[in-house]
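Chapter summary example.
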Amino acid sequence: MIAVFFGTYNAKHAANALLADDLRRAGVELRLCHEPLWEETRDKHASYFAPAALARLAGRWSLAMVRLGARFGGAASGASTIVAGFNGQLDVLLARLLARGRRVVFAPLVTITETLVDDRAQYAPGSVMARLLAAIDRMSLGAADVVLVDTRAHGEYLTTRLGLAPDRIVVQYLGAEDVFASSARAVLPSAEAGVRLRVLGYGSYLPLHGYDVVAHAARLIGADDGIEFELIGSGPERARIDPLVHDLAHVTSLDWVPYEDLPGRIQSADVVLGIFGSSVKARMVVPNKIYQAAQVGRAIVTADTPAIREVFRPGESIVTVEANPEALAAALRSLAGAPERRDALGRAARADVARAAGADVRAARLAEVLGSDRADGQVSS
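The structure predicted for these 381 residues follows.
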């Protein structure tokens, strides 16, 4: 089977990189027809999504589509499937026009509505822009024959909020890249009781991640409680969060580290933080960083959500708390004196990921959905 990974998607984003790898593992010959529009800007602040900026972005996207359209014929020769990935809400519309009988698969990861209306509150619900964004979401979802979603909870949102037919939805849990699986073989044991607990938080400073909860939890814990935080990332919320922790000796805030260094950072931590946002979006996603930490075998603390419970077992493979500073601080204090429990949580989390979202599991699911056959890594027509 031949498929074309098409559009302006962010090729550097883990969701798209994982999808490409999974398709290849599923026995698909994957061809790329790509214009790197979305990966040019890492941190997308509010100004990036202002109406005037979106209009300019639409113009640039239109030019990219002309270039993609010119290359599509060669890339799609003999192909039966077109794939649009994360950031592909507009790409999938053009893919539908170009398909000519080919199946269109869309893996949006998130919708524009949940990101800019529900989570970031960039536009008010019911506003003209909110209605326009919802219309784009409905059209993009409707353009696909198959929509890959990262959780069942996310699929339910698409059906109830945006009207997507349930029979078009396939749940494909994200999992983690191979480098994190490799790191698991060399994972360091947790520090012994009495040694400072090393807590790692990383990701974009967005409402989804709930860095305000983390910052206030760090203030509740204090410098003498034997717990230290390393917070890595940047984004729209960081200017608001940094003043909350800048005077705390047990908190270190860093900009992004090279991605290849991330497995080592996770290895050296005792606990990795998940997400603590309170939005609708926060309740229906399992972010890639949770899979990464689980794959390495680290204890994870995150907000208790329906999506988390689809993959992990609270209390057995992950520590779930209410999304508030007091609950997070209490969980970290409990883990500080329990190295054996931390190690057990890490082992169980790794097992849960292997069961629901291991590389072979993901590839087999795609092979079933797409009708491809895997035999000794070769494509079967």
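To summarize the output: The two ends are 6 Å apart (CA to CA).
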